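Translate sequence into structure tokens.
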Amino acid sequence: MKHWTFSRKVSLSIAAASLLVVLAVSGFVYTTFKHWNDRQVQALLDAKLDNFATKMSEVSFLPSLLKPGAGGGSGAAAIFKPDLSSFAGDLEAGQQLEVLDTKGRILAEVGAGHPADSHVAYMAERTFSPLVYGKLTLRLIDTGKAQNAAAEREIGRLLLLGLLLAVLAAGLAGWIVTRSALKPIRGMIREVRAIGADNLGERLHLPNAQDEIHQLGDTFNALLEKLELSFNQQRRFVADASHELKTPLAIIEGHTHMMQRWGKASPEVLEESLAYLMEETRRMKELTASLLLLAETEEPLPEEAAETCLLTGVVRELLPQAGLLKPGVAMVVEEPHPEDLTSVRMPEAAAYQVLRNIVENAVKYTPEGGEVRIGYTVSAGQVTVTVSDTGIGIGEDELPHVFDRFYRAEASRSRSKGGSGLGLSIVRTIMLRYGGSVGIESAPGRGTTVTLKFKQAGG
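Result follows.
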């Protein structure tokens, strides 16, 4: 049976269950009918015997009861033998009427006969006292050959036939219902088989009914969505890494050739090439770390993740490092009161990564003598951090793309500043992962303001 289809197994199970149910019902019906029939036959037998006893006790019936001849008993029974032939017409097939004396000896009998080994299905007895014989016993026996036995056999045959037909009908109905119920699943199987690595965006068509099949399809669609996300992340990581590593690898390759060709004879060429190699190695290291961080932050957040941190503490930690980037830029922090209101639902390492990227960008693109200001606003379960600078600003046509991977604005915002184009993309990914958001406002020559909205701890 392990190679049977599910529909065949279900059909067989329905047929087997139906067989048991119909068998139980048929047995109950047959037993109930038999008991009812037995009571009816016994009641009819008792009524018939009462009628016989009444007739035999009547004085007017006495001449037809007495038959001259030697009886087997004593007294009147030795002279007259009871004659029961007048009752023969009232007996049915398989019935016998007997008259017994006080010692249980049969004085007279009429009917089907009663062999010693025959089965007595029903029996009724009455004691009466005719004028001639004294006390006698009248017994009516039914051996079960009457019409009631035929009726029981007939009902048994009908129930057996009904049992077989019911099982066949249940099996057929089960097969039809199962095929109909499994039709959506067969459709899902065909759709799933058609989905591959190149079309993970496809989804199963779900039935309108909100039943278990709909839940199964919905669950599989959720699985496909996770697979698609994972595949896309992997493809994007490979594509991003390949794209960004081309430039440093080309530079390294070029300077290696220069060192091989002229480095031995020219210390200046050797020194310059080594400096480029170290710089590009550093860039590649930072780029790889950023790509790995970006891939990590795109993973779904575990439900049990509930780390919190104090934003004011994170800002104090990163300020000295940011100030070293360009000492001529003033750092102004508006301290909130009380500070514990800035506790947010985000691990400290993630919050540090977000704020460092934003603050370092602000310092990089703010000229000497400019200012970077950090402020806090707490309201409605949300902590808002604004980082404003008086730097060069960003063009209106460039603003929609600043969170794209590897996007760099032209001119002053270029690779020469040392960025990989992943900083703001990492910021947005981390903020979204922990239920926050990030926005940016800027204009060329008027500076930039980045707004970070965190979920407040306990909010």
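Note: The mean pLDDT is 78.
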